[in-house]
Amino acid sequence: MINNTIIVYSSNTGFTQQYAKLLGRALDMPSYELGSVPKCHAGAQVIYLGWLFAGSIVGYKKCARKYDIKAVAGVGMSPPADELAEGLRSTMKIPSNVPVFYLQGGFDIERLKGPMKLIMKVKCRSIAERLLAKGELSAAEQTTLDMCSGPASAVDEINLAEIVALFK
Ligand SMILES: Cc1cc2nc3c(=O)[nH]c(=O)nc-3n(C[C@H](O)[C@H](O)[C@H](O)COP(=O)(O)O)c2cc1C
């Protein structure tokens, strides 16, 4: 374990939390939800994981004001693509010396409430239409399509390999 490096995360429905716990186990680091980090970690070095909301990494800016961010991962429902991480870097204005990752998470519309549930119902319909029109799908695209019709998850320790390699 790298001294004084911790994992901090924001998770709306639990999938980012699952990644944070898997990463914590792989790197032997404690993980905390943003807002519940013990005071003894003030100014700590942080690997930050946040769920994606309309192209933004939830909680990143708040976390970056308080901690020394060493890597960031955005967790979304989209299939991974090369340009996603750099897109997140530019949207979130993450400095060029901080590695940015995109992780495919999970989606369960039944864990959402109110307006978010309504918005995502519509969004899922359009994502599903777009993917179905494509014909042949990669495994990750199929998982995204599955997310649109019921609970589905791509959370897997294997997706953390690059981040683990960076900090091990
Ligand atoms: C309102 C809303 C907006 C979302 N926007 C995006 C998005 O822009 N890109 C994406 O890939 N996933 C998006 N998602 C999907 C979530 O980021 C994804 O399901 C993630 O795994 C949720 O993590 P959590 O369980 O930790 O909250 C959105 C979900 C909701 C509810």
Question: What is the element layout, followed by pairings?
Answer:
Elements: E1 5-10, H1 15-27, E2 31-33, E3 45-53, E4 56-57, H2 60-66, E5 68-76, H3 82-92, E6 100-104, E7 106-107, H4 114-134, H5 139-149, E8 152-153, H6 161-167
Bound molecules: flavin mononucleotide (FMN).
Residues 11-17, 51-55, 75-78, 105-107, 112, 116, 119-120 line the site of flavin mononucleotide.
Explain the overall architecture.
The protein is an alpha/beta fold. The chain has a domain at 5-106 and 153-167: Rossmann fold, CATH 3.40.50.360. 42% of the residues lie in helices and 23% in strands. The protein contains 6 helices and 8 strands. It has helices at 15-27, 60-66, 82-92, 114-134, 139-149, 161-167; strands at residues 5-10, 31-33, 45-53, 56-57, 68-76, 100-104, 106-107, 152-153. Strands 1, 2, 3, 4, 5 and 6 form a 6-stranded mixed β-sheet that branches. Strand 5, helix 3 and strand 6 (100-104) form a beta-alpha-beta unit. Helix 4 (114-134) crosses helix 5. The chain is globular and about 50 Å long. The model has no long low-confidence stretch (mean pLDDT 97). The protein binds flavin mononucleotide (FMN). Flavin mononucleotide (FMN) binds at residues 11-17, 51-55, 75-78, 105-107, 112, 116, 119-120.
